[in-house]
Each structure stands twice: as C-alpha cells, then as structure tokens.
ABC transporter domain-containing protein
Amino acid sequence: MTMESEVTNHAVVVRDAYKRYTRQAVVLKGLNMTVEKGTIYGFLGPSGCGKTTLLSCIVGRTTLDAGEIVLSVNSKSDIGYMPQELALNKEFSIKETMSYYGMLYGMTKEELVKRKAEMYSFLDLPNENSTIDEISGGQQRRVSLSVALLHNPELLILDEPTVGVDPLLSHCIWQHLLTLSTVHGKTIIITTHYIEDAKHAHRIGLMRAGTILAESDPKQMLTSYNCDTLEQVFLYLSHKQESGISYEAEQQEMKNYPNPTKKPVAPIKNRMDICPVHIYSHIWKNIYWLKRNKPILAFLLTLPIVISALFVLTIGRDPLGLKLGVVNEELPDGIDVCNRFAANLTCSLEYPMSCKFLDTLEKKQINLIGYRDHESARRGVERNHVWGYLYFSRNYTEALFERIISNLRASDESLNTSELKIWMDMSNQYIGNLLKRDMYFGYLSFLEHVYKTCDWPPEAATVPITYEDAVYGSNTPSFTDFAVPAVIQLSEFYLPMLFTVGAILMEKREGLLERSFISGMTLPEIMVGHAIVNFVILSLQTLFMWVVLFIIFDNVFNGSLLLAILLLYLVGFSGMCYGYFVSAICDTDQAATYMGLGSFFPLAMLSGMVWPFEGMHYLLRAIGWCLPLTLTTDAFRSISSRSWGLNHPAVYAGFLSAIGWSLFFSLATYAIIKLKNGLRTKS
Ligand SMILES: Nc1ncnc2c1ncn2[C@@H]1O[C@H](COP(=O)(O)OP(=O)(O)OP(=O)(O)O)[C@@H](O)[C@H]1O
C-alpha cells in the first residue's frame, strides 16, 4: 500500500522517521505511527524521548532527516496546534489574542464572536480584558488551547494541553475532545505526561528511545500485556527494549543512520503567495503591542527629537567665555586701565595699542585675566585657570607704529618688541585651535581698524586673499553643517533596526513567530507587515527630526526635499533589513545589543561621519567606502548643501548603496534562516 492510499483512511501517517539534532543526539530512529481520522491519539513517553520533535515535524516546524509524513489535510489553517511552551504574547489581553488569531485564520467577525463564546463556556476562561501576564499558569494554558481550537480545525495537535490544569477541568477538556472527535470527526493527537489520562484516547502510542514501542487501543493494550495500568505496560516494554539494546547495536545503528540524497519535504508545503489578510493581522498585532507598550512607542518617537535637539544644542557651536591670561608690560597698573583711554586717541602713541587688540578679543567673548609677570601667568595655565597667555612688551605701541610706518626699514628691536608672544595650552585641540583662530582674525581686524583710524589704506593691513561667494555652502561653514547629514543618516539607519530587532527577537524568543508560522503565516508576510508598521513609525521619526534640524534650528538644506526624503526612507529600509539580519543571527537580546553596539561605532567612524574621509588610513578608506552609510551620507550632503540631483554620481551612488545593502541584508537573512532551519531560538 502506498503512503497516499494509506492516508485516505488515516489522518496522519509517519513512516521510517529519522531525526537527529547532532551526530550523537538521535531523537527519532525509524519511527512509524498511524493516526486514524476522527480519533484521539494519545502519545506517551518519558521526558526527552522526542514527542515534541515528532509533532514539530508533523506541523512543519522542522523537517525529518529521512522518512515520510503524510497528512490528510493540505493547508496549515486546517491544523490547530498548541505548543508545549505558552507561545502567546503576555502583554496582550485574551480578547486581543483571540482577535489576532481570528484575523490570521481569516474568520469573519460573527464567526469569531460565536467561537469565542464557545471557548469561554467550555474552557472557563477569565475576563477577556485580562492580559495573559495577569492570569494563572493554568488559565494561560487554557487560552493557548482555545487559540488552537478557535478556527475549528480538522486536525488538532496538542502538546501537553492538561499540564497545570486542575483535575476537574482536565476531565472537561478530555470530554470536549472526545465530542470533537466522535461527533465532529476531528482528529486529535495529544501528548501527555499523565499516562493514566491517556486511557480516554481511542488509540495510544508508547514512545521511547526514538521509536514507538506499541500502538493500539488502551484496553486492548492492557489485555495484550496482561497489565492493570498503562504505566505497567510502559515499564514492561521499556525493560524489554533496554535489554535488547547493546552498546555495539547502538554504534551500528549510528553507522546505519540514513542519509538520503533528497531530504524529506515538510508534509504541508509553504505557500508562495502573499495573503493580505495575514499582513493585515500582523499589522494589528504590532498595533496591539504598541498600544500595550506606550512607553516604548513614546521612546521611539521622542528619541529622534532628543537626538537632533541635543546634537544641535551641544555640538558644533563655538565655545564661549574661554579664559586667556595677559601679561602686559605696557600697562603696569593692569589691563583694566584700558577703559581710561579715550577711543578717539587710537592713532596716537598716547593710546596703548595692546588695549585695542584686547578689546577685539573681548568682543569675541574671550575672558581676559591680567597677570603681573610670566611666572604667575604660566602658573595660571598650569592650574587650568586660563588656556594660555599673551605677552605685550613695554614699548609695544611705539614698536608697532615703527614696524608699520618704517616697514622694510624697521629695526630688529622694533620688529621683536612689536611681536605679540603667546603661550598656549594645546592639550585640547579644539579649544586651542579655536583660540588661535580668534586671535589671528582678531589681530587682522585690529590692524585694519588701526589703519583706518590713522587714514592709511586698510587694504594694506589685510592678507591679499579674497574669498568670493562660495560656490556651494557658506564661507564660514560650521561643524554642524558637516555633521547634520551624519546624525540624520545614523538615526534613520539605527532607529528602524532597533524597532525591528526588538519586535522580532521578542516574537522569536516567546515562540510567537513559530506559532504564527504554524498557523499559516509566511516569513514574507511577516516582513511586509512589519515593514508597513516600521514605515509609519519611520515617517514620524523623520518628520520630527526634520522639523528640529531644518525648521526649528534652520540648518542648511538647499536641495530637493523629495530626493532627500526618498534617500532617508531607503536608508531606513536598509536599517530595517539589518534589523532582520541581526534578529536572524542572534537568539538573545544580549547578543543583539552587542551586535548593534559593536556595529555602531565602527560604522560611525569608518563612514567619514566624525572626521573627513580623506584623513583616514588608506586601507580603512577602502573599507569605509563599502559600508552602508558612507555613500548615503555623502549623497545627503550633496543634496542638502550642493542641491545636486539624482543624475549626479555622488547622489545616485548613495541610492544604489542603500538599495544594494538592503538586498545584501535580505539575502544574508534568508541564508541564515535556511541554515538555522527557521527563525527560532535554539530551545
Ligand atoms: N533544537 C534542538 N537542538 C538540539 N537538541 C534538541 C533540540 N530540541 C530538542 N532537542 C533534544 O531532543 C530530545 C527530544 O526533545 P523533545 O523536546 O522532542 O522531547 P519530549 O519528548 O517532547 O520531551 P518533554 O516531554 O520533556 O517535552 C531531547 O534530548 C532534547 O534535548
């Protein structure tokens, strides 16, 4: 008889099933099992004998290494599966849980209301607004059972449904299952630890060490083995099996483990089409989750605002109120005496020129602190009171005038005396360079002022270089202009990644993804559903960042808004794909956190976000060009400050990079899922 013909009379047929997780851990060893239609099959065996593994193969959670499983049903929606673990979202209410699965099974509102009422009366479920987290363990198991029964499936596969349920309710459940099979013709496979419970089943299979020891009607089994209880039958058969297994036989079995060239396929093939109802239900599931986790939603929406506001308010602005020491031998009574000199004397020797220069520095909001001599000023630097000090010689003003007026004929002494000497604390590169810049430009404007007040041509005081209007950007660009594209790109990449990893890992860890897959959902449907929710959140995040960076703080943006937004969406999409990739690789939040953080810093540094790319080691530059945010950041800069369009290589390279990385992460995720045989944790 062929398997196909066997299945016309039977609901489940398993033949010569082999399965192992590692070379040594063989779980199924040529197992055979037959379940007749419209019956209850009690599946018994000690913990760890492979019951769950076999059920997983039947529902298509995992595949056999060899052998065959044929089912009478041909769609996942005809199966109701209750896994051993809870596999329900604990934050959802019972009502939300049922609504989600109702939507997933394509039930109409009326059907759902009717079935829900039946479940409530038979399983004595608590208030529908209670969250799964709030109810007892036994009540949680009952909700899980009601989810498996909700869509009235043809084949029910229940892994330990009566664990944690009181004897009275357990009896009720058995009675209901019996009605389902005998009256409604449903087939039920049920595993249980309570061997005596299984006597209610029409047929039982005793499993041990990867095979079925015996399979028959419970009464017939007791008679055949002349035992009073099923427990005695099981012990008798176990002893018999034990005495028949020698070490050599086990080794031989291991050697003979079948390795067919063609791997067995799952009993129900995965659908290739995309079902809008499934996507819709996944979107609702995300909405329920966000509703239950308002602080997380608030965090996701306020984080971009906080990042952009903090960035603009803290980074790129010139430090104010920096302190500089002054040793001024021109003014023995201290620098405060400068106020006593009339400004209209600025072209006379009566007016100390050092005062004029110090006045220029004060206008640049530099705090000047007078010191008596070099020693005290140096001590001031060493004690971190000032960032450096300036020294003016006693005859500074005369020497400066002589230097200007005599120019080429000025004496060495006047050249030396008119020189302003500065000692700086350069341990802080930014502050040191900013003070140097202020002193340099301050000196130029001071000189120009002197020339003007003395009626000398001011052009003679300036450096003969003129910066005309910049072709792109401003002649006085700020660090903020450089860094805004980097901040927005990093946020657009990492925020969707954060949401994706959080959502997928939680579903994976709790077994929710598995349950959705077994209920007929496919990976592409989950990804599309998640992408739609992510797209809405990303749109809000982008809007908020845009308002803060470009509207409230008025950072430079001169290009096409449409192009920039499109680029940001693509970057967000590649971030989401990276999130899928991390969720596929990592099983725990901890591993995902390490991976996220571990990639953040190299990505930020190697993408030329913190420092111009051209300053990088040439080998790292080669790596940097290949990273997901390098070309996209460059493209955003080109759009925002140069108004370049999509026809410019710098812009379309960014678009191509985002598309390429999205493809790469998607393919890599697919490969990992294939390699790990599904998107599930190891347990
Ligand atoms: N993903 C996995 N990787 C490696 N080993 C596994 C995996 N899943 C299960 N096993 C091992 O396979 C064996 C059978 O496990 P399974 O969960 O099928 O047993 P079970 O009969 O359902 O046990 P229980 O009644 O305690 O649930 C166990 O030894 C288990 O450690």
Remarks:
- The longest strand covers residues 10-20.
